[in-house]
Amino acid sequence: MGLPAACLFDLDGLLLDTEPLHSQAWLEATAGFGLTLAADQLLALRGRRRLDCAEQVRSWIVQADLAPPSPEALLAARQPISERLMRQVPAIPGAQRLVKRCLAQAIPAALVSSSSAAAVAHKSAPHGWISLLKTRVLGDDPDLAAGKPAPDPYLLAAQRLGVDPSSCWAFEDSLAGARSAHAAGCVVHVLLPADQHLAIGLQADLPDGCTLLQSLDAVKLSKAAGNGSQVG
Ligand SMILES: [Mg+2]
User: Fold this and answer.
1) How many angstroms does the Cα of residue 108 sit away from the middle of ligand 1?
2) What's the chain look like in SS3?
3) Do 98 and 211 have their domain in common?
4) Is residue 1 included in any domain, yes or no?
5) Does residue 125 share a domain with residue 60?
6) pTM across the whole model
7) Which of 86, 116, 134 is the last residue of a domain?
8) 218 C-alpha to center of ligand 1: Å?
9) What is residue 221's predicted lDDT score, i.e. its pLDDT?
């Protein structure tokens, strides 16, 4: 692998360590409707847009023979919990350095997140370096027809940067995100969770050809790049 034409960064779980907090927020919100989400259900919500998550959670509530709230009511219950938790979200180790290395080498970069613009602003507020990523495709983008795992977000990001998606490196942590970037034709790097059990489960479902990362510090933005192991 030579240098990429652009680097496309996911936010949740890739630049910011939000995923445990997202899971906690869903857990607390659904408890109010009588449902206790299992670990695999929480994992299935990762990387997806809020409304897509709410519709999925609502279907689980229906399956459990409980009175289902509307997706909007679910999101309204979750919102204050999420805002409280996200105020203190830490960065993923190596994330700030990777973004700055990319921009220092004049490699165009974009943020490709399922989160809404308001949510991105809220959780990235303590992390000024995220504002270096000027080009963005976010979950409530009016030009976005479908969210991850559809290829649309990555295709739109490449289009906005004026580059071929197949020349872009996408950085993801979730299955939905990796599938989205892969379907768009990007070179996909997947940051594996520290939890071995979760990492093995994720690897089993990833599309072929993803480069697996134990840490963002392992990314080599140089001509001699070619680190990590590959799936498939
Ligand atoms: Mg993610």
Assistant:
1) 20
2) CCCCCEEEECCECCCECCHHHHHHHHHHHHHCCCCCCCHHHHHHCCCCCHHHHHHHHHHHHHHCCCCCCCHHHHHHHHHHHHHHHHCCCCECCCHHHHHHHHHHCCCCEEEECCCCHHHHHHHHCCCHHHHHCCEEECCCCCCCCCCCCCCHHHHHHHHHHCCCHHHEEEEECCHHHHHHHHHCCCEEEEECCCCHHHHHHHHHHCCCCCEEECCHHHCCCCCCCCCCEECC
3) yes
4) no
5) no
6) 0.85
7) 86
8) 18
9) 84
Give me the domain span that covers residue 168: 6-18+90-230
Of 46, 61, 86, the last residue of a domain is 86
Examine the residue annotation and report whether 17 is marked as an active-site residue of this protein. no
Task: Give distance in angstroms: CA of 131 to centre of ligand 1.
Answer: 18
Is residue 10 annotated as part of the catalytic site, yes or no? Answer: yes
- What is the per-residue pLDDT across 15-50, written as a single tens digit (0 to 9) for each? 999 988 999 999 999 999 999 999 889 988 988 888
Q: How many domains does the chain have?
A: 2
144 Cα: distance to centroid of ligand 1 (angstroms)? 18
> Could you tell me the CATH number of the domain that includes residue 80?
1.10.150
Residue 147 covered by a domain: yes
